[in-house]
Specification:
The complex is a heterodimer of chains A (627) and B (193). Chain A contains 23 helices and 22 strands. Chain A has 627 residues and is of the alpha/beta class. In chain A, 52% of the residues are buried. In chain B, 41% of the residues lie in helices and 20% in strands. Chain B has 8 helices and 6 strands; from the N terminus they run E-H-E-E-E-H-E-H-H-E-H-H-H-H. In chain B, helix 2 links the parallel strand 4 (62-67) and strand 5. The chains are: A alpha/beta (627), B alpha/beta (193). The interface between A and B is large, with 53 and 55 residues.
Chain lengths: 627, 193
C-alpha cells in the first residue's frame, strides 16, 4: 500500500462497505472523452507501443497515450506505416495499439489485411474512428465493413466507460484468437465526455518481449498464406461461439412488442426513444451471434435495428435468416440523434405521433460562420497570389463554378489550406484524399488541358503521401508546379509533430526531414523556397515556377500562426487613406472586418509583425503598425 | 453553450461537467467544434441528471441556452424548451460574409423576437463589457459560468466551482478568473430570471 494507508484507514471508518471497497481499489470517477478512455484503457491493459497518424476524431488517442513516458508512442508518417509499426511490435510479443480516422484505414488497409492473415503475437488493437455526419472529413464511410473484409472481430463501445473497459477485452480477444481486433468508434463516442469509473493505480501486466522465428506464420508466401486463410475462418467460427455468451452483448428486458438491436452511440438514442422496449445491445458487432439473435427475434413482435450509416447489422442479421427492419426508416447518411430515431419510429408505426413544440422560424438568411484560415496564417499570402493569377476569383461564380477554364488549375489536398476553397480566396479546384493533389495534377497535365497546373499540399500531408507523387512526376516528366506549404506542423488536427517538424509525439527533439533536399534527391531540378510572409518573395517564386515548362517545386515556408506566441505591432487602417477598394478583404483574414462600412483590423486577433501581409498588398499604403 | 471558436466555451463546459459529477450527477457532454480553432461556430451540449443516455440535446429540450455571441445564439432557438432560459452575451463577432457585404448581421430586436416565439426569458447581458473592466476579455467564459452558476437548478457549492476553475487554468490567471466568476454571479443577482 502507499503512504496514504493511515489516512485511508481513519477515513474509511466513516464509510459504507461499498465505499470502502471503492477506496481499497482506489476507484475514482472521472469525466473522460472516449479517446481519453481508450488511451487510459490501453495503458492499463499493458500496451508497450502505440502508433498513429493524426486525424479527427481519433487524434487525442495517441496524444493521451504519449503522455505515458514509460511506453513508446509515435506519430507515424502515415497510417500504413503506423499499422506496420504496430504489427512489428505485436510480433515482438508486446501489446500494441494503432489508431486512425476512418479514411486512415483505407491507407492502412494493406498491412491491416496482412495482419489479419498472419495473426499476431502480442495483442494488436486497431482503432478506427468513423465520422458520421462528416464533422471534419472528406467523406462518410462505414468501417464496420472492414471487420468482415479482414475477418477480424470488432468491438463498438457506446460511451467512455465501455471504451475503457472494452480495450482490455479487445487485447484479450486478440491474443486468445490470434487476430488483430478492430475497435470501432464514431465522432460522438470519441469526443463526448462521460463518467468513467477507473482504478487509477491499476498495475500493468508484465510481458516478455521476444520474437519467435516462425516463417510459416510471418512470411506470407502463397504456400504459407494458403495455410493461414483457413485459420482465419476457423477463428471466426470460434468467435461466433464466443459471441453467443459474452457479456459484451447484453439483453435489456422490456415490453415484447418491440425488440431493438443496437450498438455504439445509436443505442443511447434508442434507449431514450423506446423507453420500455426490449433491447439487444451489441458490444461485439462482428461476428454476430446467430442463436442469440434468433432467440431474441422469437421473443419480440417486431424486430428493429437502430444503427448509423450503412445497414451493417441489418444485412448481417438478414443473412442469418431473421426478418428485421431498420434502414427503410432510418437515414443511411449523417449522424443519428434522438429526434431522427424518434421520427423513424413514428414512420415505422412503432411509436404514436409525438407532440413537440412547433418549429420556430429562424431569422431569414442568417450568415453562416464557416471556419477560416486564421489571422496571420502563413497560407494566406500564397493563396492570395494564386487567386490573383489570371484573376481566378473573378472567373469563378458564387458557387465556385465556371464554364471557362481559368489560366490556372489548382489541385488541392487535405489540411487547413483546403479552407482556401471558400470565398474570398477561391484558390482550390480539387480535394480528394491525402496526397492526391500531385497525382491529380499529373493526370490533368497528361490529359492535355491548356491551363497551367499547380498542386498545393501541406508539409505533413506531403510527407504522409505526397512523396510518391513527386517521384511519379519526375519519372514521367510531368510539367506541373508543386507548392508545398510548410508551416512546420500538422496544424489542422491541433499541431502534432511530423517527420519534418523535428519533434516526436512524446516531445523529444529529433532530426527533421529536409523537404528541399528530399525533392532535389528525387530529381526535381527547379526547387525554390519562399518566405510565406513576404508577398514579393511568394509572387516571384510562383511566377518563375509557372514560367518554367518543366517540373518545379516551390516551398512556401512560414510558422503556423497558432503556434506563434509573440504578437506585437498589430496593424491598423488609416481611414483617411483607405478608399475601400476591398483588396485587403481578399486575403480572407478574420482580423480584417467591416464595421459600419469601414474596414477595421481587430487588434486582439491581428498577429502584427509576425504576418504583415495586408500592409504589403494595400494599394493605398493605408495599413501600418499601430504606433 | 454556443459561441465562436476561441471564446473558451469547451473549457467552461468542462468545468461545469466536472463540477456536476462532483455533486454525484451522471454527466454527458459533447462538443461540436469541427474546425473551431479556425473561427467557426462552437457548440457544447451538457446533460446532467440521475441517468443520462444520449450526450446530445434534442430540439426543444434545453433548459438553458448560454450564448457567448449574438449571431450564434440565434441559430439555436429551436433547441430551447418552451419557457427555457436564454442568456446572450451582448457581443457581435461579424463573420467574413458581413465584411464582404453578402450578408447582414441580425439586429437585437430580431434576435429577441425570434426567441420570444419559444420563451420570454431572454436576457442580453453585458459580459464582454464587464470582463473588459476586469482587465482581460479572455475571462468571458468564466464570467458566463459565474452567471450560469446562479441560475442553475442544481446546486453546486462555490468551493467546487473554485476547485475546478483552479484545476483547469494556469495558476497565474486563476485569481483574475475567480474575479470574473464573481462578477458573473453579481450580474446574475441583478437580473430577474
Amino acid at each position: 500500500m502507499n503512504k496514504f494507508v493511515n489516512g485511508y484507514y481513519n477515513y474509511s471508518l466513516r464509510l459504507t462497505n461499498r465505499e470502502r471497497i471503492f477506496i481499497l481499489l482506489e476507484m475514482v470517477k472521472k469525466l473522460l472523452s472516449g479517446n481519453e478512455a481508450i488511451a487510459l484503457g490501453a495503458y492499463h491493459a499493458g500496451i508497450e507501443v502505440a502508433s498513429a497518424y493524426p486525424g479527427t476524431p481519433s487524434t487525442e488517442i495517441l496524444e493521451n497515450i504519449a503522455q505515458f513516458k514509460d511506453i513508446y508512442a509515435e506519430w507515424s508518417t502515415n497510417e500504413k506505416v503506423a499499422m506496420e509499426v504496430g504489427l512489428g511490435a505485436s510480433y515482438a510479443g508486446v501489446r500494441a495499439m494503432v489508431s486512425m480516422k476512418h479514411v486512415g484505414l483505407n491507407v492502412a488497409a494493406d498491412p491491416f489485411l496482412a495482419a489479419a492473415t498472419t495473426g499476431i503475437h502480442g495483442g494488436l488493437v486497431v482503432v478506427s474512428a468513423d465520422d458520421p455526419g462528416i464533422h471534419s472529413s472528406q467523406g462518410e464511410q462505414d468501417n464496420r465493413h472492414f471487420a468482415k473484409l479482414a475477418r477480424v472481430p470488432m468491438l463498438e463501445p457506446a460511451d467512455s466507460q465501455e471504451a475503457y473497459d472494452f480495450v482490455a477485452i479487445a487485447f484479450e480477444l486478440s491474443e486468445k484468437y490470434d487476430t488483430p481486433v478492430l475497435f470501432r468508434i464514431t465522432t460522438r463516442v470519441a469526443h463526448s465526455k462521460t463518467v468513467v469509473e477507473i482504478d487509477e493505480k491499476k498495475t500493468r501486466p508484465d510481458r516478455k518481449k521476444r520474437f519467435h522465428h516462425d516463417v510459416e506464420k510471418y512470411v506470407m508466401l502463397p504456400s504459407h498464406a494458403r495455410v493461414r486463410v483457413p485459420h482465419m475462418h476457423r477463428r471466426m467460427t470460434e468467435l461466433t461461439e464466443f459471441a453467443e455468451t459474452t457479456f459484451l452483448n447484453q439483453l435489456v428486458d422490456g415490453n415484447k412488442d418491440i425488440g431493438i438491436i443496437s450498438a455504439g452511440v445509436s443505442y443511447q438514442y434508442a434507449r431514450e426513444v423506446f423507453t420500455d422496449a426490449t433491447f439487444l445491445k451489441l458490444g461485439l458487432t462482428y461476428p454476430l451471434p446467430p442463436n442469440l439473435i434468433h432467440d431474441f427475434a422469437s421473443r419480440v413482435k417486431r424486430l428493429f435495428v437502430v444503427e448509423e450509416l450503412d445497414p451493417f447489422l441489418e444485412e448481417n442479421i438478414k443473412i442469418l435468416g431473421t426478418h428485421v427492419e431498420g434502414k427503410k426508416y432510418i437515414p443511411r447518411s449523417g449522424e443519428l440523434n434522438k429526434t431522427v430515431v424518434q421520427d423513424a419510429a413514428v414512420k415505422a408505426g412503432l411509436l404514436k405521433h409525438i407532440d413537440s413544440p412547433a418549429e420556430v422560424k429562424l431569422i431569414k438568411d442568417l450568415p453562416g460562420r464557416p471556419p477560416l484560415l486564421c489571422p496571420g496564417c502563413p497560407h494566406s499570402g500564397a493563396f492570395f497570389v494564386l487567386s490573383t493569377i489570371g484573376q481566378r476569383a473573378k472567373v469563378l461564380d458564387a458557387s465556385g463554378k465556371s464554364e471557362k477554364e481559368s489560366k490556372l488549375i489548382i489541385t488541392g489536398d487535405i489540411g487547413c489550406y483546403t479552407l482556401a476553397t471558400y470565398p474570398p480566396l477561391r484558390a482550390m479546384d480539387t480535394t480528394a484524399c491525402m496526397g492526391a493533389s500531385i497525382g491529380q495534377a499529373i493526370g490533368l497535365e497528361k490529359a492535355g488541358v491548356s491551363s497551367k497546373i499547380v498542386a498545393v499540399i501541406g508539409d505533413s500531408t506531403f510527407l504522409h503521401s505526397g512523396i510518391t507523387g513527386v517521384v511519379d512526376a519526375v519519372y514521367n516528366s510531368a510539367k506541373i508546379t508543386i507548392v508545398i506549404l510548410d508551416n512546420g506542423t500538422t496544424a489542422m488536427t491541433g499541431h502534432q509533430g511530423h517527420p519534418g517538424s523535428g519533434v516526436t509525439a512524446q516531445g523529444n527533439f529529433t532530426r527533421s526531414v529536409d523537404i528541399e533536399q528530399l525533392v532535389r534527391g528525387a530529381g526535381v531540378n527547379d526547387v525554390k523556397v519562399a518566405d510565406a510572409f513576404n508577398i514579393k518573395s511568394v509572387r516571384s517564386a510562383l511566377r518563375s515556377a509557372l514560367d518554367n515548362d518543366e517540373l518545379s517545386v516551390v516551398v512556401v515556408r512560414g510558422k503556423c500562426a497558432v503556434t506563434t506566441k509573440v504578437r506585437k505591432n498589430q496593424r491598423q487602417v488609416d481611414l483617411e487613406k483607405c478608399n475601400d477598394c476591398g483588396v485587403c478583404i481578399m486575403i480572407g483574414c478574420p482580423a480584417i472586418q467591416k464595421h459600419d462600412n469601414k474596414i477595421q483590423i481587430e487588434i486582439n486577433s491581428c498577429m502584427g509583425d509576425q504576418c504583415g501581409i495586408c500592409g504589403q498588398i494595400c494599394p493605398k499604403q493605408a495599413i501600418s503598425a499601430i504606433s | 453553450m454556443v459561441g465562436v471558436g476561441g471564446q473558451g466555451i469547451i473549457l467552461a463546459s468542462d468545468i461545469l461537467g466536472e463540477a456536476a459529477l462532483e455533486i454525484g450527477l451522471d454527466v454527458k457532454k459533447t462538443d461540436t467544434l469541427g474546425m473551431a480553432q479556425r473561427g467557426g461556430s462552437v457548440t457544447s451540449h451538457l446533460r446532467m441528471g440521475k441517468k443520462v443516455w444520449s450526450p446530445l440535446i434534442s430540439s426543444a429540450e434545453a433548459d438553458i441556452l448560454l450564448a457567448f455571441e449574438r449571431l450564434e445564439a440565434s441559430r439555436w432557438v429551436n433547441y430551447v424548451k418552451p419557457d427555457g432560459i436564454v442568456i446572450i452575451n451582448n457581443l457581435a463577432i461579424p463573420p467574413l460574409s458581413i465584411s464582404m457585404g453578402t450578408h447582414r448581421y441580425p439586429d437585437d430586436a430580431e434576435i429577441i423576437d425570434s426567441f420570444n416565439q419559444r420563451t420570454k426569458k431572454v436576457h442580453l447581458i453585458e459580459g464582454s463589457g464587464e470582463v473588459s473592466d476586469i482587465g482581460d476579455t479572455r475571462t468571458l467564459n468564466i464570467f458566463m459560468l459565474g452567471f450560469l452558476s446562479s441560475i442553475l437548478a442544481i446546486k453546486i457549492s462555490y468551493d467546487i466551482w473554485k476547485k475546478y476553475i483552479g484545476e483547469h487554468l494556469p495558476a497565474k490567471i486563476v485569481d483574475l478568473n475567480i474575479r470574473a466568476f464573481d462578477k458573473g454571479r453579481e450580474v446574475a443577482s441583478s437580473v430577474d430570471i
